[in-house]
Amino acid sequence: MKKVRVGFVGAGGIVNVHLQHIRKNEMARVTAICDIHEETALRKAQEYGGAAYTNVDEMLEKEALDALFISVPPLAHGEMEEKAARKGIHLMVEKPLGLDYQKTAKKVEIIKQSGIICGVGYCLRYLDSVAKAKEYLQDKKVAMVRGHYLSSFVPTPWYREWEKSDGQLVE
């Protein structure tokens, strides 16, 4: 049986978890890894296999991918999801799809029209407390949302800058 050819855009942070899982999956293989930091892309490609890239457009042009993990900061998404969707590449996108509502809605429409599978990842959405909150809020109108961070802050430089991440509730 043919293995699913998986590419990655963004080679830091959470992508390490995704790379480990794909490496363990005998039905899939890491085909390409793209990061704006060439040294990082090369190091991850050496560790997990696949070709290293610093330009997502070049990777999408040269590689035959079945699936693509996109794990970049919110400010960096651009049009990579649309480009992959138009090529029929299934997506797993680390949240959010973008920061601008109009652009993101357009992106969602292109993804829907493409017929691909697109998952937007956020590991905490499957907690039992989230299910309980959704049930409780089902027939209520939300007037205000307040968030609390229950661990240390993520050390990434863009995380606490509103214009780059849209703040804690989005990120």
> Might you state the CATH topology name of the largest domain?
Rossmann fold
| Structure annotation, total helices | 7
**Annotation, overall tally of beta strands:** 6
- Low-pLDDT segments, ≥5 res: none
**CATH superfamily caption of the largest domain:** NAD(P)-binding Rossmann-like Domain
Shape call: globular
Termini Cα gap: 38 Å
Q: Report Rg.
A: 17 Å
Strand order of the largest sheet: 3-2-1-4-5-6
- The structural domain count equals 2
Which class of secondary structure composition applies to the elements? alpha/beta
Largest sheet: 6 strands, parallel
The residue-averaged pLDDT reads 90
Percent of residues in helices: 25-40%
Structure description:
The chain has 171 residues and is an alpha/beta fold. The chain folds into 2 domains: 4-123, Rossmann fold (3-Layer(aba) Sandwich), CATH 3.40.50.720; 127-165, no CATH class. The chain is built from 7 helices and 6 strands, in the order βαβαβαβαβαβαα. The chain has helices at residues 15-24, 38-48, 56-62, 80-86, 101-114, 128-137, 162-165, and strands spanning 4-9, 28-34, 51-53, 67-70, 90-94, 118-121. It has a 6-stranded parallel sheet with strand order 3-2-1-4-5-6, sandwiched between helices. Helix 4 (80-86) packs parallel to helix 5. The radius of gyration is 17 Å and the shape is globular. It starts with a strand and ends in a 6-residue tail after the last helix. The mean pLDDT is 90.
List the main descriptive attributes of the protein structure presented here.
171 residues, alpha/beta, Rossmann fold, 2 domains, six-stranded parallel beta sheet, 6 strands, globular
